[in-house]
UniProtKB/TrEMBL annotation:
Gene3D superfamilies to which the protein is assigned, alphabetical: BolA-like
One of the GO BP terms on file: iron-sulfur cluster assembly
Superkingdom field: Bacteria
InterPro entries listed in its UniProt record: BolA, BolA-like_sf
Lineage: Bacteria, Pseudomonadati, Pseudomonadota, Gammaproteobacteria, Nevskiales
Similarity-based family: Belongs to the BolA/IbaG family.
Species for this entry: Panacagrimonas perspica
Official protein name in the record: BolA protein family transcriptional regulator
Length: 85
């Protein structure tokens, strides 16, 4: 299973009713100091009823919670666009 598949799986486990788009933008950051760790840069657009009533910071925290340890092991940077339905 690829890294992007593991990330997608974790997000859908945390937000089973979500619609999401996940892009690996690591190639855009080649040579960047953070890229030397082997962790990737990703762009996420996620729409879920779970975000209803949450402010943007709470939505981001919920995404980070769903990803768990992957934020420390696989992801260096994550651009998040999280919206409710």
């Amino acid at each position: 299973m690829t890294r992007i598949e593991r990330i997608r799986e974790s997000l859908l486990r945390g937000f089973p009713d979500a619609t999401l788009s996940l892009e690996d933008e690591s190639h855009l950051h080649a040579g960047h100091a953070g890229a030397s760790t082997g962790r990737g840069h990703f762009r996420l657009k996620i729409v879920s009823p779970a975000f209803k009533g949450l402010n943007p910071i709470a939505r981001h925290r919920a995404v980070y919670a769903a990803l768990g340890d992957m934020m420390q092991t696989d992801i260096h940077a994550l651009s998040i666009d999280a919206r409710d339905i």
